[in-house]
Design a protein that fits this description.
11 helices; binds guanosine-5'-diphosphate; alpha/beta; 297 residues
Length: 297
């Protein structure tokens, strides 16, 4: 479906005269192709433009290396710039969950993969980090979602807070905190209710829960295939409640991963994990190299 960017660029450079350095015109021509590739990968237009401008500055005048073609060289420059943009100071897989019991808030829209990701992450914390984890569903609007978390918990061997009908989300959060403290848990994860779209009631509810628990991490779970919508959702959640990181789900599908670049460039928030399927093991630490490779095709 997508033409490989390296091949495309080779074509561009074949038509250009060979010189000792990448000239401004060569680079411009090549970056037009890169821009198309970024847009095809669903990177937002302003982010693509800004990125291209920075790469252009860096690439112009670079000596052409003998061992690679100019096309390969530009791809390498673009690849490195993508990795640099996607890489922050933080270690994506290392969550701030010292001082037990550490509260973690899981937020996002309905259907984004929040409940699945909560369980996947709990399993990871248990198995890789040896943490004792308690999960609680705050989705009082969808009893099925509460049940779903309990079923997943049983499946992965992670405790869930018993469901008590009629409690408000803040009350459930308080109960989770209490049980986590008394039960000697290292982490308690709060799977908040999602809506089909952002609304004030939802935001207020999440803000209230955050106020009573002071979460150490607030992870936004978004469908990576929704591209720019995912970025807008992240901006809204960050403005209203403050998020500490992002999990991009459905990265096992065909999408080219451009949402990751826009997400990082626009929100400045680290992408911590990617969801790669429905199974409980299908969660990986975010790797900038992999996404860069995927965006370039
Ligand atoms: P929630 O409403 O945000 O809690 O969403 P769910 O966790 O219930 O997930 C909705 C659907 O997406 C379920 O069928 C999940 O199995 C599926 N899902 C979640 N994460 C992924 C992922 O990374 N890849 C794929 N292919 N499916 C996922």
């Amino acid at each position: 479906m997508f033409e490989n960017l390296s091949e495309r660029l080779s074509g561009v450079f074949d038509r250009l005269t060979k010189q000792g350095a990448l000239s401004e015109d060569d680079v411009k021509t090549a970056l037009r192709e890169v821009r198309v590739a970024l847009l095809e990968a669903d990177v937002s237009l302003p982010v693509a433009r800004d990125f291209i401008a920075r790469v252009q500055e860096k690439a112009t005048g670079q000596a052409v290396t003998k061992s690679v073609t100019p096309g390969q060289q530009v791809v390498k420059i673009v690849h490195d710039a993508l990795v640099a943009t996607l890489t922050g100071d933080e270690d994506p897989g290392k969550l701030k969950i010292d001082n037990p019991p550490a509260p973690m808030l899981m937020v996002g829209l309905q259907g984004g993969g929040k409940t699945t990701t909560t369980a996947k992450l709990a399993k990871r914390l248990k198995e890789r980090d040896g943490k004792r984890v308690l999960m609680a569903s705050l989705d009082i609007y969808r009893p099925a979602a509460m049940e779903q978390l309990a079923v997943l918990g049983a499946q992965i061997g992670v405790d869930t807070l018993p469901i008590v009908a009629g409690q408000k989300p803040v009350d459930i959060a308080r109960r989770a905190k209490q049980q986590a403290t008394m039960g000697g848990y290292d982490v308690y994860m709060l799977d908040t209710a999602g809506r089909l779209q952002i609304d004030e009631v939802l935001m207020q509810e999440v803000a209230d829960v955050a106020a009573v628990t002071s979460p150490r991490e607030t992870l936004l779970v978004v469908d990576g295939l929704t591209g720019q919508v995912a970025v807008e959702v992240a901006q809204e959640f960050d403005a209203k409640i403050g998020i500490s990181g992002v999990v991009l789900t459905r990265m096992d599908s065909d999408g080219r991963g451009g949402a990751a670049l826009s997400m990082r460039a626009v929100t400045g928030k680290p992408i911590r994990f990617v969801g790669l399927g429905e199974k409980m093991d299908a969660l990986e630490t975010f790797e900038p190299e992999r996404i860069a490779g995927r965006i370039l095709g």
